[in-house]
Write a structure and sequence with these properties.
Elements: H1 12-25, H2 27-44, H3 51-77, H4 85-114, H5 118-137, H6 142-161, H7 166-208, E1 213-218, E2 223-226, H8 228-234, H9 238-241, H10 246-250, H11 259-262, H12 264-271, E3 275-283, E4 289-301, E5 304-313, H13 315-329, H14 339-356, E6 359-367, H15 370-377, H16 379-395, E7 402-407, E8 410-418, H17 422-440, E9 444-446, E10 449-451, E11 455-462, H18 469-485, E12 491-493
Parallel strand pairs: 11-12
Antiparallel strand pairs: 1-2, 1-5, 3-4, 4-5, 6-8, 6-11, 7-8, 9-10
Helix pairs in contact: 1-4, 1-7, 2-3, 3-4, 4-5, 4-6, 5-6, 5-7, 6-7, 15-16
C-alpha cells in the first residue's frame, strides 16, 4: 500500500516502508495466536468432532505458523530498500492468504458435524473474533487484511449455504453480511494507521532535517533519540549516544553542579513543566565547549514521561554579538579602546581609587607634526603610523593600564592603582610617561620610509570622583597643550591655578 501524499512526495517511500515494517512486526503475535488457539479449540471439541479433522485443522494452522516464522526471520535479516518493498508486500499478502485459508478450513470441515449444535455458534464466534483482531494486527497492509478476511469467511459461507438447512442458510447469510462489514472496518483501520504513520514520518523527517539538535530522553535522563543534527553538532552517532546520560553527554562538566543547569530537573520529573530557552555551554566529543540555546519540552505518553530537547548552536550569533560589542567600544583602525570604552574604564578607576584610597593618572598624548607626515607620505602611511603608535603604547604599559584612541592623532593612557601618596604617584606616572616618550620617539619603518614622530604628553592625577570624567580629560588635555607650548616632545603635568 502506497501513501498517496502529493504535498510530501519525498515521504511516500518512507511511509510505505514504515507500514511494511509495522505489518511484519505483528507477525510474532499472529504466530502465537495461530499456534495456541487451534490447540485450545481442539481440546474443547475433542469429544464432539472427529479427531482426524481436528488434527488436519491443527496441522494446517501450524504449517501456516511455520511459513510465517520463516518469512518473519527472512524479513528481519534482509536489507530493505524502496525497490524491495513490493516483493515483501506480495509475500505478506500471500502469507495472509494462507492464514485466512487455515482459519477458514476449520469451520468448513466441522460444519457438517455441528450444523445443529451450539458448537457451530461457538466456532463461528471464534472465527469472527479472529477476523476482528486481524483488522487491528493487519491494519498496516490493507490488501493483506482484505485477503485474510475473504479467505477466512468465504469457505465457511459457501459450506453453510450448501447444507440445505435453515440454520445453514441463516449462517451463510450472516457470514455473507460480516464479510463487507469487516472489510469496511478494516479499510477504516488501515486509513487510520496510514494517517498515523504518515504523521510520524513527517514529524521524523522534519526533526531529521532540523537545524537544531533534537534529542529525546526519558525520566531517568537517558537519551532515547538523537537526530542527524545532534550527531553533527556533538560528534556522536545515534547508536553511540542512545542510552547515555543527556546532561553528561551534552553539557560541559563544570556546569553539572550549576544551580541554573539543575533548576529544571525536579520540575520536569515531578510536574513536567516546559523549560524556557536558556543559554548554556555544551561540549563536543573532542572536548571543545561552545555556547548553545536549549529548550526542553515534556510529553507524557501512556503514563510514561518523555522529554524532547531542542538545542541550537549559537556560536556564530555569540561571535557576531561580541564583534558588534567590540566595534562599539574599540577604534576600528588601531583596535584600541575608543572614547566610550575609556569613559567606562575611567569611571571604574575613579570608584576604585575612592574605595581603596589610591591615586590614578591620565596621560593625553598628541603626535607632533602628524599632519605634515600625512600630507607628505599620504593617508595610508599616516594610518600605519597610528597603528604602530598603538602597538608601542601597549608594549610600554602594564596589563592593568588602559590605552585608548580618542580620534585623529590623539591617544590616552590611564594608569590605575598608583600609591596613595601624591608625590610617589606623580613620580611613577612620570616614569611611565618618559618611557612612552622614549618609545614613541624611535623611528617608524613604514612602506620603505623611515618616519620620525614625537609626542607631546599631558598628565593629570586623580584620586576620587569629585572632579568627574570630563574635568579629568580637560585637565590632561590642558597639560598636553602646555607640553606643546614648551617646545613639544616633552611631558607636562597639570598644575592647578592655586599652585
Amino acid at each position: 500500500m502506497r501513501a498517496a501524499d502529493t504535498s510530501w512526495p519525498h515521504l511516500a517511500v518512507d511511509v510505505e516502508g514504515q507500514l511494511l515494517r509495522a505489518g511484519y512486526q505483528q507477525l510474532p503475535l499472529i504466530l502465537v495466536m495461530t499456534t495456541l488457539i487451534p490447540v485450545l479449540a481442539s481440546l474443547i471439541w475433542w469429544r464432539v468432532l472427529p479427531h482426524r479433522l481436528l488434527l488436519i485443522w491443527c496441522l494446517t494452522c501450524w504449517a501456516c505458523v511455520a511459513s510465517a516464522y520463516v518469512l518473519w526471520r527472512a524479513f528481519q535479516s534482509a536489507r530493505h530498500t524502496p525497490t524491495t518493498h513490493p516483493r515483501w508486500q506480495r509475500l505478506y499478502v500471500g502469507q495472509s492468504l494462507l492464514a485466512g485459508v487455515a482459519w477458514g478450513t476449520g469451520p468448513s470441515l466441522f460444519m457438517p458435524y455441528t450444523a445443529a449444535t451450539p458448537e457451530l455458534t461457538l466456532f463461528l464466534g471464534l472465527l469472527l473474533c479472529v477476523c476482528g483482531v486481524a483488522t487491528s494486527t493487519l491494519s498496516s497492509q490493507q490488501k493483506a487484511l482484505a485477503v485474510f478476511i475473504v479467505a477466512a469467511l468465504l469457505p465457511p459461507t459457501i459450506t453453510a449455504a450448501f447444507l440445505h438447512t435453515a440454520l445453514g442458510q441463516a449462517t451463510a447469510f450472516m457470514l455473507l453480511c460480516f464479510i463487507p462489514a469487516l472489510l469496511v472496518m478494516g479499510h477504516k483501520a488501515c486509513q487510520t494507521k496510514l494517517a498515523l504513520v504518515s504523521t510520524q514520518a513527517r514529524l521524523r523527517s522534519v526533526l531529521d532535517r532540523s537545524l537544531d539538535a533534537v534529542i529525546e530522553f526519558d525520566a531517568q535522563g537517558l537519551i532515547t533519540s538523537w537526530n542527524p543534527r545532534a550527531q553533527a553538532l556533538f560528534g556522536l552517532s545515534s547508536a553511540e549516544a542512545c542510552g547515555l546520560s543527556f546532561a553528561q553527554t551534552v553539557f560541559a562538566t563544570n556546569q553539572l553542579d550549576d544551580p541554573v543547569m539543575n533548576a529544571w530537573q525536579p520540575d520536569f520529573v515531578n510536574t513536567a513543566t516546559p523549560m524556557d530557552r536558556m543559554e548554556l555551554q555544551a561540549v563536543r566529543r573532542n572536548g571543545e565547549a561552545f555556547p548553545v540555546e536549549v529548550a526542553i519540552i515534556p510529553l507524557q505518553i501512556g503514563g510514561i514521561q518523555h522529554f524532547t530537547a531542542f538545542i541550537a548552536d549559537i556560536s556564530a550569533r555569540k561571535a557576531a554579538e561580541a564583534q558588534v560589542q567590540h566595534q562599539a567600544l574599540h577604534d576600528a583602525l588601531t583596535g584600541l579602546p575608543n572614547r566610550r570604552f575609556l569613559h567606562l574604564q575611567l569611571d571604574k578607576a575613579l570608584a576604585n581609587c575612592a574605595r581603596h584610597q589610591r591615586q590614578g593618572a591620565l596621560m593625553y598624548i598628541d603626535l607632533d607634526n602628524f599632519k605634515t607626515i600625512n600630507d607628505t607620505h599620504g593617508h595610508e602611511v599616516g594610518d600605519l603610523l597610528l597603528k604602530q603608535v598603538a602597538d608601542r603604547l601597549l608594549q610600554s604599559m602594564r596589563l592593568s593600564d588602559t590605552a585608548a584612541r580618542l580620534g585623529g592623532d590623539e591617544f590616552v593612557v590611564m594608569l590605575s592603582d598608583l600609591n596613595a601618596d601624591l608625590s610617589d604617584a606623580k613620580q611613577k606616572a612620570n616614569t611611565v610617561a618618559e618611557k612612552l616618550l622614549s618609545s614613541l620617539n624611535q623611528p617608524y619603518s613604514i612602506k620603505g620610509y623611515s618616519v620620525r614622530s614625537s609626542p607631546s604628553v599631558g598628565v593629570t592625577l586623580f584620586a576620587d570622583q569629585r572632579l568627574g570624567i570630563d574635568e579629568i580629560l580637560r585637565q590632561a588635555d590642558h597639560a598636553m597643550y602646555q607640553a606643546k607650548s614648551a617646545g613639544r616632545n616633552t611631558v607636562r603635568f597639570f598644575e592647578s591655578a592655586q599652585s
